[in-house]
């Protein structure tokens, strides 16, 4: 008689294995598990489920998945679905995927990925077939999930999020959501979603990552209306037709704004963030030199925030203004200025005595500034910089991790000679 590897598993390890099923890799082992461990393979153990798009392509495999969910679906709390919209599989939402979701009524976390339509050429046969086919309404398939708390949609250009005719109805049914992430790639703006986020009164985390393959911005009248409980907000590639209002976001802890390029006209930035007294983390990325003055006003307003600890500025063009008159919050613990065109280490950071993490990677810095900011520094990233002199690191007794990468003008031994013994060089 064959011996299963599960026979030698400790009970706690076996319980962890049985709590998650990945249909792409483990479907064939499920009957064996159920036979040998009838007591442990009870439906109440299953919590996490991952379904790959290949489970729709194979009819027999889809039947097995459906049969398994009919038996154990009531216990599933977390599900990840990967769905293809190519060719005949474009009907998946009206059939297979929607049916499987109805077999898991107690889902608390759902992640839906639809990658494979992204890179079809506009003149290809598959692209034309998808345009002629059904445009599934994703959110309309989720209205029975009354206890859903976390939803992530990562969709291709052929999948509609929701038609505006049903948006208010569906948003009301999903009013219990605490976390919502929508990532869309599309060729035909605007994206089919307007501004009914106001119905999501319990929402604590909102991410909108909308990229148009033609390079044009998406126009939402106001992507952040009154959301009283919001704590984490991330906007990428969103062009507001009215100024973004942060006045009602008094519980906001984390803010990320990115994907605003010079081709976007009259970008409206918030004049100030002084009302966000709980804001601890701000990420500003991918700005152009045409908007640098607006970004600078925004950065200067951050100095007034009492709780700010983490500031990240990445992939930007600071332009001829450089870093003159920039201000940093004196209580910053983490500062990232990655790929911003720095020619030297900013003198303004020398007074940041609380700083523990500093990332100045992908710039043109020859060395560091001396100053009290080095005393508590624990991690320092200087990847892709033409470094000449690192003697100031002798003033960083708390340094534990130094990332340098390729150094054409210095030897690792010269740097290691001035570092504390516990510091790791990468």
Automatic annotation (TrEMBL):
SUPFAM superfamilies: F-box domain (SSF81383), L domain-like (SSF52058). PANTHER family: LEUCINE-RICH REPEAT RECEPTOR-LIKE PROTEIN FASCIATED EAR2, RECEPTOR KINASE-LIKE PROTEIN XA21. This is F-box domain-containing protein. It is found in: Cytoplasm, Cytoskeleton, Cilium axoneme. Residues 3-49 form the F-box domain. It comes from Apatococcus lobatus. PROSITE patterns: FBOX (PS50181), LRR (PS51450). It comes from the Eukaryota. InterPro entries: F-box-like_dom_sf (IPR036047), F-box_dom (IPR001810), Leu-rich_rpt (IPR001611), LRR-RLK (IPR052592), LRR_dom_sf (IPR032675). One of its GO terms (cellular component) is axoneme.
């Amino acid at each position: 008689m064959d011996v299963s590897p599960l026979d030698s598993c400790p009970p706690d390890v076996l319980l962890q294995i049985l709590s998650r099923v990945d249909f792409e890799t483990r479907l064939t082992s499920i009957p064996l598990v159920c036979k040998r461990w009838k007591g442990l393979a009870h439906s109440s153990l299953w919590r996490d489920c991952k379904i790959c798009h290949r489970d729709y392509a194979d009819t027999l495999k889809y039947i097995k998945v459906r049969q398994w969910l009919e038996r154990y679906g009531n216990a599933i709390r977390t599900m990840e679905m990967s769905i293809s919209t190519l060719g005949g599989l474009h009907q998946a939402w009206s059939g297979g995927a929607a049916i499987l979701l109805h077999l898991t009524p107690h889902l608390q976390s759902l992640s839906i990925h639809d990658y494979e339509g992204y890179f079809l050429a506009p003149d290809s046969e598959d692209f034309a077939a998808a345009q002629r086919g059904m445009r599934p309404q994703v959110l309309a398939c989720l209205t029975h999930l009354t206890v859903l708390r976390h939803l992530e949609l990562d969709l291709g250009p052929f999948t509609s999020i929701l038609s505006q005719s049903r948006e208010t109805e569906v948003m009301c049914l999903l009013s219990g959501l605490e976390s919502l992430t929508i990532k869309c790639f599309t060729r035909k703006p605007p994206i089919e979603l307007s501004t009914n986020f106001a119905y999501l009164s319990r929402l604590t985390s909102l991410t909108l990552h909308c990229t148009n393959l033609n390079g044009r911005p998406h126009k939402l009248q106001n992507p952040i209306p009154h959301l009283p409980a919001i704590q984490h907000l991330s906007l990428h590639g969103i062009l507001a037709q009215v100024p973004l209002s942060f006045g009602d976001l008094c519980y906001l802890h984390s803010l990320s704004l990115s994907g605003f390029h010079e081709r976007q006209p009259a970008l409206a930035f918030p004049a100030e963030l002084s009302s966000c007294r709980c804001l601890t983390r701000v990420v500003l990325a991918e700005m152009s030199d045409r908007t640098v003055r607006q970004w600078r006003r925004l950065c200067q307003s951050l100095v007034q925030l009492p709780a700010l600890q983490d500031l990240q500025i990445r992939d930007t063009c600071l332009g001829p203004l450089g870093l003159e008159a920039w201000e940093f919050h004196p209580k910053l613990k983490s500062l990232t200025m990655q790929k911003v065109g720095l020619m030297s280490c900013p003198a303004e950071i020398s007074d940041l005595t609380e700083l523990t993490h500093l990332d100045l990677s992908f710039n043109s810095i020859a060395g560091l500034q001396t100053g009290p900011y080095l005393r508590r520094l624990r991690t320092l990233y200087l990847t892709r910089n033409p470094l000449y002199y690192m003697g100031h690191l002798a003033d960083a007794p708390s340094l534990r991790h130094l990332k340098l990468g390729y150094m054409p003008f210095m030897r690792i031994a010269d740097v290691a000679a001035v570092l504390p013994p516990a510091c790791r060089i990468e």
